Amino acid sequence: MPLEECKSSKSRAFLKSEVLEIAFTKTFVQHYAFIMKTLKKSHESDTMSNRIVHISVQLFSNEELARQVTEECQLLDIMVTVLLYMMESCLIKSELQDEENSLHVVVNCGEALLKNNTYWPLVSDFINILSHQSVAKKFLEDHGLLVTWMNFVSFFQGMNLNKRELNEHVEFESQTYYAAFAAELEACAQPMWGLLSHCKVRETQEYTRNVVRYCLEALQDWFDAINFVDEPAPNQVTFHLPLHRYFAMFLSKAVKCQELDLDTILPDQEMLMKLMIHPLQIQASLSEIHSNMWVRNGLQIKGQAMTYVQSHFCNSMIDPDIYLLQVCASRLDPDYFISSVFERFKVVDLLTMASQHQNTVLDSEHERSMLEGALTFLVLLLSLRLHLGMTDDEILRAEMVAQLCMNDRTHSSLLDLIPENPNPKSGIIPGSLSFESVLSAVADFKAPVFEPGGSMQQGMYTPKAEVWDKEFDPVMVILRTVYRRDVQSAMDRYTAFLKQSGKFPGNPWPPYKKRTPLHPSYKGLIKLLHCKTLHIVLFTLLYKILMDHQNLSEHVLCMVLYLVELGLENSPEQESDEEESAGGQERCHDSWFPGSNLVSNMRHFINYVRVRVPETAPEVKREPPASTSSDGLASSQSSRRKSLQRENSGTAQVFSLVAERRKKFQEIINRNTSEANQVVRPKTSMKWSAPGATPQLTTAILEVKESILSLLIKLHHKLSGKQNSYYPPWLDDVDVLIHTEIPRYSHGDGMTAVERILLKAAVQSRLNKRIIEEICRKVTPPVPPKKISSAEKKTLDKEERRQKARERQQKLLAEFASRQKSFMETAMDVESPDADIAMEVATSEQHVSEAIYDCVICGQSGPSTEDRPTGLVVLLQASSVLGQCRNSTEPKKLPTTEEEQIYPWDTCAALHDVRLTTLQRYFKDSSCLQAVSIGWEGGVYVQTCGHTLHIDCHKSYMESLRNDQVLQGFSVDKGEFTCPLCRQFANSVLPCYPGNNVERSLWQSHSNKCMQDLVQEVEDLQEQLGTFPVSISSETNLSKEMESVMKDIKSTTQKKYTDYSKTPGSPDNDFLFMYSVARTNLELELVHRGGNLCSGGASTAGKRSCLNQLFHVLAMHMRLYSIDSAYNPWRKLTQPSQDKNSELISEELPEVPVLYRDVSSLLLIQILTMPQPLHKEHFTCIIKVLFTLLYTQALAALSVKCSAEDRMAWKESEALKKNASSGEKSWEVLLGHVISELSKGKIYEEEEAEELTVVNPDSVECYLQQFCLPFLRITSLLQHHLFGGDLPSCQEDEEFTVLASCLGLLPPFQSAHPFTSASCLDWPVPAFDMISQWCSELALFADRQPDQVKVLLIQEPKWDLPRLLQLPENYNTIFQYYHRKTCTVCTKVPKDPAVCLVCGTFVCLKGLCCKQQSYCECVLHSQNCGAGTGIFLLINASVIIIIRGHRFCLWGSVYLDAHGEEDRDLRRGKPLYICKERYKVLEQQWVSHTFDHINKRWGPHYNGL
Fold this sequence. Notes:
The chain is of the alpha+beta class. It contains 56 helices and 23 strands. 43% of the residues are buried. The radius of gyration is 45 Å and the shape is elongated. The protein is 47% helix and 7% strand. The strands form nine sheets. It has a six-stranded antiparallel β-sheet. A three-stranded antiparallel β-sheet has the order 12-11-15. The two termini are 46 Å apart.
């Protein structure tokens, strides 16, 4: 077999020459059977199938070639024979109908051949060649082929038979149904659709006749083989009837496209009767499955019921079945058909006027849903027009409206849900123009939005208002729902629309929708609506609902009214009112109604009904009225038992549905004299035993005296709950009879439906109108109350008790909710004694109040004490967000070409790192570690949900979590948990510092001490190191907890982010790390506020800030490190030093000059080393002193930027003004002084190119303010957290002034002259002395390292907010560049490439090639780039994943298609465009560190990403 050569010769090149091509194809066809044998034996049938199809698709797609091979090599014969032969290998005996004697064989769905779709390449080739007109024509003309093909199809007829389990649950649920549905769709339906596509014009009538003829022959053989006569075997169902469906679809085509007369191709009545049985059995079984009658067969039976109606199968399964039933119904006797339906649905016994009945075939709990099923089926049968006159465009529109009404849909799911015609040449193909145009006509597009929970919506289509108003079709929705809940969903959405648009406030009923006119060939279907049997059923049901018999629901009434309305809409011909004489009523002795027209039967009064009831029924007690004579009984009965003998010759015969049906069936069979030898075998099954078998039934006569019209009017009264609620509208406004389409009737509840029906009845006939008026004139007596038996009384009491219990429960729930609400309010209010504590309390009587906390575990409230401390639930996480700030406002772009690369030199983290390294090169290490802050990379950010708990409660909570075996999304061993109240993710508890809120009450008390005294006090306080209120020596619970939380904070980030000292493990490291934690949290809060404090107000998260508690923990630990008083920076800031040269001699490396120190860091060191709680006056004093240093730094930085001439000018002007009184508060003077002092060293020697363009007073003032602002912002935030009080809001240009006055730097009387930043200065010692001292340190350094002096001067900080990389508009740009890009580490093209959205690094996801110490590359990168947080775009999936520590989650996609949908894994291959809103949300979550809270689906990555 030349298969190996074939593989290599797949390329078209080999098949180029035509001669060769034909020769090869012929050889391929000759070996076809052999190929299939090999395929059947192959273990890897998938791979082999693909290879075969790769060749065959090229050969058979060429029509000319296919035609030639068909003619010369009998290709069609070979294919059909090979298929037949293939299926013959897995046939089993069919157990359908007659298990013992059945001769029919079906495929066994459990065989590998079907389970693995091994037949697929063959079927695919067959469908492929049938798509060519010339080949299909040959097939349809060849009678032998058609016979063989029908034979093949019959192997699938009745496969996968289900038998209802009645006793115990099946042990093993077989999943063979997948194989069965796939086989019918692929092997039977798709070839059928292929053939149908060639039967579109009149000239092809012959083909249809052929197919129908052989199809019917195959069906007749099938009926004979399974020994079928007239009753289907009970408790069996198969969903697979491909022969029926072939027959149905070719009939439909014949009428729709070929103008064939239906009657010329339909079989005789007997055959139609047989044909309808099995499709009807499926409809009844669907209802049984939904009524949970097949529950013992397991879930798979529900799976079958769902697959049968599912969008990919419905137009090859349920649609042809319903169409076939419609055809049968239109040609068969309507009474026979209707009674068959109720018999199939097993609700015949329920249709009695008696209040009690016995159902021999159905449990009472299933009766209601089966009755609903039967009525719903009739409504579907009579309403659907899919094959009965709708055009393709109308069908598409109806399908689309039905799907959109159930739920808003994305474009792709709509494409998937609209049943596509499996044959591509049909014209309605999803994605074609008609799909888009219909979609835009019926739906509005809702752009993708975000929900408050952070879940991301796709772009959705939602029905337009006029669609709800005019086109919502509940019938179509019922037909197309896979899940029953979707019908409810559609109704809920319809209700919401009516409420919103003000059309109807209550709970509406499904609206009645006008139908497309029937095609003339199917006019017979209308007869169903106008047959006595249906009218008897409708009358009985209306009566039962009015009398409150059991097992009837609103749904039943709704369907009954729908059928009545359908009958009125489709009345045969206008009846003549004249011929209706008064004597008409006497004409019908033995039946209920005079004629078959619903319009006239509606007004026919039925006086007495004879019923069969159980002995115990209340009806039995009554005596029959005296007038029960032969002519007095206008009506008979509705207990549908088999033939009941007449009571006496005078009374009417008891009407029996089943008996009638049998009689009709017998008549029809006897008519077919040719087949007279086939005598009907009477089925003596228990079901239809003679009444003698159930002796407890007795006959009673009921007085009814109602007509359908009177029942409807009474029902209106009942529904409205008012007597005489119905008033004929035409009495006030005759126009309603002419213009019946009144909007107020189109939407509404049951009353509206009744009103609409009565109006239609009145319009159709004058007599009806008169009778309605008469009924309304008689004051209707109230509906007689039923005699309540004791049993019923019990149930009523039970109901009442239940109702009361329900009310009690509601009350309890409401009370519980309000308690929970108030609890939540107090729990959220953590720092209840905020600034609202008695502010006006004078210093004399200090109102000391302790903060009260609620524990969310034990529910107790109380202060935090040293023995039983309370703590805040916090999440500690390492963060490098601050380090990603850049000093350019232009965001960096993700590189998409080789030229664009990102270098991290200008990030905040890199610049701080360089600065620290440089300082460490020239200055003493311990001093360097106090001159800067770290934490720009790998800083620890602390956030809280605001809830508090006792630390001992927390420990027991953690213990219970540890013992909990439930799979959690977090690791308890790592200390992770979720807040017991709000379920927010957390990993530590921050102890609340006990004691009073004195610092708050001292807020207002301004002291009048002078600056010098305060400076001295601060110094003294720093000296008393041992006097921390919680003494460390005594090990209290609180101090233990503070130590443990400090350990947590340290272990949150990696060692490399905490160790910057040259001597590892030095205490200076810890000191630096601790105040840097405070700095990181302040800086991040500033970033969250948008980089400035203009908006003011409380802290972003209000109650959720934990900085106050964090400060106490840090302060306690910082006080453990004593600062040698000789090196205490406070001295250097507030006292001119005596001996300038001591430093140089004593050590080889000097201290860091004061002007090189970061002022914000100095602030935190000062504050955290002071005893807590801090007094406001000392805080302000520290700020004032530090501001003088900051200002001097600003002047020094400015002086370097000036040109030499400018410097000279300033220097001279300073000499003149120096002695003026305000010299210390004038920047010109101070700047001149700085320049003259710095000129003493070699600082200005090399001239730099970078200069301020214009040095005018305004630009200098602006420069100085911008230089000082970051410090003022951090300080204001700190003051806000330590002392309470809101931050003032302001305009951007006023920020400096507002903050300065808020901090107490700005003297209040400043108003007359223009504001200058220098007026905020308050020098503790003469300014010029201090400045000279600070500058001299620089001058000394300049002598040794002239090139570094300017580099180390603190520059004006201009950091932009942290941003993610900017992404290109079109996803293709990213995909094309990255998906073939090689990894820089392993130089291979990664299988799963990913790119970091923070820094642009290209990484291998899950790549073992780049693994280091058991960490895969993405995890490693997330640690290096984001201190444990990584945001990666997966190139081949367009999805973003987030790595957070040891967990990861799929975030979603920021690239959507034109319809606002994601395309995960790029499966649909649509062009994708950036969704800026989504990207903003991602960036927001990154900056605010809320990934853990907003994304819910986290899992461990085990370092394998």
